[in-house]
Design a protein that fits this description.
Blueprint: H1 17-20, H2 23-33, H3 45-55, E1 61-64, H4 71-78, E2 82-85, H5 91-105, E3 134-136, E4 142-144, H6 150-160, E5 164-165, E6 176-179, E7 182-186, E8 190-191, H7 193-203, E9 208-213, E10 215-216, E11 226-230, H8 233-238, E12 261-263, E13 276-278
Parallel strand pairs: 1-2, 7-9, 8-10, 9-11
Antiparallel strand pairs: 3-4, 5-6, 6-7, 12-13
The structure holds S-adenosylmethionine.
Length: 290
């Protein structure tokens, strides 16, 4: 609970340093957290407390896309808000992770801990963004980025089509699964009809397989248990690339504990039998989760 009162006095235009802190307070908080490497431009926690108090409510989602030393997330956490922080610098690892750990285990006694009666708790997930899957070649055509090896590409395609990435020793074409009988195979090869027919025979009548490949012989489309998609066209069809506004639905992010079942669309799984895919169960894409 915040000690602030929602009586209008906290929304004044002028916020005095003795109410919302001073850059020196931010610096002292940093030194307490990181004696040998304080972040150079920290805000005092009291300032963020006032902002979050005025602009959000318990349980709201707070976004700081330039997280710095993580003050916004730390204060949001102590105030019972959920949060997303984005940071491209190394201090995501060197400052934000250890800071949030101290907040969570209750050893961060500084900043607004006392004012919010913070004792510790909660958690977070840490994701590392994958490089862009697609890039344009010298002729302006979309191609798969050279940063992607075969495993990364398979994992990325599983993510795009709501399959759980789970390469199997049982068969080379089992890269992921959407249900007991629905599989995905990702390859940069061009597949001939003979190759497709051989795969189709292995898959059998009781299973279905989505194949994402560079190219395929059109005859293969007649094989009942296969659905054929070309990369990168199929990825371009499903995502926006090179946009300024990706309209991230932050109100509808998958939560770790909520395993939401969604119906895969016809582009997603081959199975015409309303295959269900588990998005939240899909492992993170190349990222470390901490
Ligand atoms: C001034 S700090 C932010 C301080 C923080 N929001 C706070 O309230 O204390 C700006 C941060 O934005 C990060 N940054 C700059 N461009 C970015 C980008 N495109 N994506 C993510 N972080 C970025 C910088 O590395 C830096 O840590």
């Amino acid at each position: 609970m915040s000690a602030l009162k929602n009586d209008g006095t906290n929304a004044q235009t002028v916020w005095l340093w003795n109410e919302v802190g001073h850059t020196q307070d931010g610096r002292k908080e940093q030194i307490a957290l990181f004696p040998s490497s304080p972040f150079s431009t920290p805000k005092p926690e009291k300032l963020l407390e006032r902002i979050l108090y005025l602009a959000s409510e318990d349980g709201d989602l707070v976004l700081d896309s330039f997280a710095g030393s993580g003050t916004t997330g730390a204060v949001a956490h102590k105030m019972g808000r959920r949060w997303i922080m984005v940071e491209l610098g190394d201090h995501a690892q060197t400052h934000i992770v250890p800071r949030m750990q101290k907040v969570i285990d209750g050893t961060d006694k500084g900043g607004v801990s006392e004012a919010t009666n913070w004792k510790g708790g909660g958690g977070y997930r840490f994701f590392r963004l994958a490089p862009s899957l697609l890039q344009k070649d010298v002729w302006g055509n979309w191609v798969i980025s050279k940063d992607y090896n075969a495993e990364m590409l398979a994992e990325a395609m599983c993510k795009h089509f709501n399959y759980v990435y789970a390469p199997s020793d049982e068969a080379y074409w089992m890269h992921g699964q959407a249900s007991e009988n629905a599989f995905i195979y990702v390859t940069t090869a061009s597949l001939t009809f003979d190759q497709l027919r051989a795969i189709s025979d292995e898959v059998g009548a009781d299973r279905s397989l989505l194949i994402c490949c560079m190219a395929y012989e059109a005859q293969g489309e007649a094989l009942d248990n296969l659905t054929l998609k070309k990369i990168p066209r199929v990825v371009l069809d499903r995502c926006e690339w090179g946009e300024d506004d990706y309209s991230l639905r932050i109100d509808a992010l998958p939560m770790a504990e909520e395993v939401e079942e969604i119906l895969a669309d016809d582009a997603g799984t081959h199975a015409p039998k309303k295959t269900k895919a588990r998005t939240a169960a899909t492992p993170d894409l190349f990222g470390e989760e901490e």
